[in-house]
């Protein structure tokens, strides 16, 4: 297929297949893919109608031809795809009409929303794409996606396994977001970066409501843009759509002026709509496009346009942090998540992620950390590594458009890293140094920046995705270099027009009152043109300086953000309640005062060792709350608040032990999991939180966990206690299977079960050792097992 | 749409007059939820035929077997299928809250359940307005009485809920996103009595802490 054609001409697609089939007798909820075998003539005649109406590309009847959607039909992906493509090709024979392989969502939600791993989704799409190319499809259309992550899996699968051009369209709500929260700019920049050939919107809304979204899309991509709206909205009383062909076309025409060049229809449309569309668009030419080429990174939910100062948080980095290093070695991803959440709450825009440490397999760890962070933190990430394998693994599983930190002017480094950056559509930080070291003059650094830019451009990476780090040197060691760095910042900004990065904190190393020097340098650097300071956002004065700068530069219009930042600046009650009073550690825990509990624990460690702090103070305090809970004087939220305050005490203890290099306090390990088929896990997480804060060490296998995975973990780690949760009557059998399997062990663990539908009677019937009605009872069971 | 705090309090097992600090925090959580997440729903009405094998929704390819559907729809000539969800936005909020505070996450989870029910109530009001002169039965859902959970999957397929709401039903008939509801409402020419009252209609009757304590929750 000639892709240039798509830029210079108007292209007409087809309309709905499902709607037309339902008009001809397919019941709602039926599987249209089976018609490829049972009624090929019907499909063929519908294609001919579309072709007669002016369609230049028709969709093979493969929207649901993926393995998960075909499960139970008795048909394989290959069978369905080859039959479907053959029918469409047959209908198009003797014309210039192209046949596109239609790939819809898999019908299972991907992690973290669902349980389908990204890698498995990729395999499913790969199977469809390979079958489609083999069957002779001319291109691929990935359609009706609402999860950018699923769209990415599909796009990668097509790009890596076929030579076919690929269109990607997603479904948005009127709010400008998809069901999973993806924004238009996030979609546009991510899919263009990953190499889609055209992108657009289909389904969900009529052309009138889709038009403003299409306009926004056109501003955010250089690619040809596709519009396939529904024929308005469906009437719930009849199921029919409310727009006729003429009304549909009239509402769609403004999209041409916005820059859309590829038109078709989705639900509710028919050959009549396409005929009206072809007629209205006959002889029309594409409108000029205006692309907003500012720098950009994003997650699916959070676009980050680089049109001002954006703060990169530096705290996810093990260098010089014993507690962080320990978390990495123990795969304690929750600790890393906690560091991320703190920076988000402090106002960081982007998070740098560095997990390089001796003893850590970076290529395995980085994707795990990326997934864990993206499950709960919406900020875009900057993957910080020199390891090409780790970067590729991290970028692959990243949902959105990431940044890579970093390359430098050394040719070998550029050759190794830039192709990966290009493939995944990331932005890249280039450090102004090379094999000869750091140039001592601003001019020398800018020359390297220029070289990095040229290398990126020749690799196909646009200038807006190249960020230059002009390098901060320690002022106490090389005093004259501070001025050179500032000069280089100014030159890169003015001469090359690129984003400028600086790791700001370095400047004050070795000096007293570092914050004053750091803040002053930061302010001067922003004035010189620094756009992406890498800082510790948890330092209030640093973020204050950024907020103040945005007022002075005019970026913070009307000083609105600045005023909001300092409005009601009274400290939060949870950390202040005890200050100055004679609050005890026990009270702080009972009242869920996290900040105070941590502070009092640090004080207590002056006169008490870690173990006795846990045994003599923490546990009795938790027991007090537990007793109130059982007596109906305290309720679940209070129990959990106390557990959380206890967690802050544990954090103090862990840090103290890590600094001394001692062995962590561990009273016993237990496995906890939500059984196979069960995907809702808040109950399990509640039990885990409370048990952990009694000092038990959780091996949390997550949700939808197969019995075998639980068995393997118990066997390999020799774990004496297992907690299982099930929410639905339909998953009780999986719970029973798990118990049976664990009982095949020579020395089975003690098993306790709980969850909405579990009763003491079921528990006994299934062979569980204990029924736990809540988190509190789970702790009692653990005490029996571990004797403490 | 309004979120009544009495519902989440009940889900959290709070009895008596709650601690003011708890109430304040719950109210803040509820505000955050209702500001950022709006329940979305789709419904469709079908003619109903009473057959020996069950209540047949004509044109939907669905027959609701069992005594629950029979009793609820006895005087109805049409039935509405309804799906309502808080969507993935709620899941994101819940995960984010779990990373910060498990206590607030538990509160958010409870508020979410109540908020999804409020969405169903709102759909019910819309249906009532759309069919003046018709009377609605109580809303009932797969899992109530003998209406099988499996019907959840059929209802979602008929309403095209994966595409129109982003709701998926797993092989074990769990809905994802978690705060999603499917339901059936009958339409009749005669006023319909309240039939769904008491523990017999509740999914949680076996494990309910209230019931075990000899109480009822009042729903």
Report the biggest beta sheet of chain B as strand number plus sense, adding barrel if it closes: 6 strands, antiparallel
The CA-CA distance between the termini of chain A, in Å, is 70 Å
Strand count of chain B: 8
Largest interface, by Cβ-Cβ below 8 angstroms: which chains and how many residues each? A-B, 65 and 62 residues
Distance between the termini of chain B: 19 Å
What would the average pLDDT of chain A be, to the nearest integer?
93
Low-confidence blocks of residues of chain A: 571-579
CA-based gyration radius of chain B: 18 Å
* Backbone CA Rg of chain A: 30 Å
Ranges of chain B where pLDDT stays below 50 over 5 or more residues in a row are none
Structural class of chain A: alpha/beta
Based on the structure, what is the oligomeric state of the protein chains? heterodimer
Secondary-structure element pattern of chain B, one letter each = HHEEEHEHHEHHEEEH
Number-wise, the strands of chain A total 24
Characterization of this structure:
Helix content of chain A is 48%, strand content 14%. With 788 residues, chain A is α/β, with parallel strands linked by helices. In chain A, strand 4 (139-145), helix 8 and strand 5 form a beta-alpha-beta unit. Chain B is α+β, with helices and mostly antiparallel strands and 219 residues long. Chain B is built from eight helices and eight strands; from the N terminus they run H-H-E-E-E-H-E-H-H-E-H-H-E-E-E-H. Chain B has helices at residues 6-11, 20-36, 67-72, 87-98, 102-130, 151-158, 161-165, 209-212; strands spanning 40-51, 54-57, 62-64, 76-85, 135-136, 168-169, 175-176, 180-188. The longest helix of chain B has 29 residues, at 102-130. The two termini of chain B are 19 Å apart. Chains A and B meet through helix 15, helix 28 and helix 29 of A and helix 2, strand 1, helix 4, helix 5 and helix 6 of B.
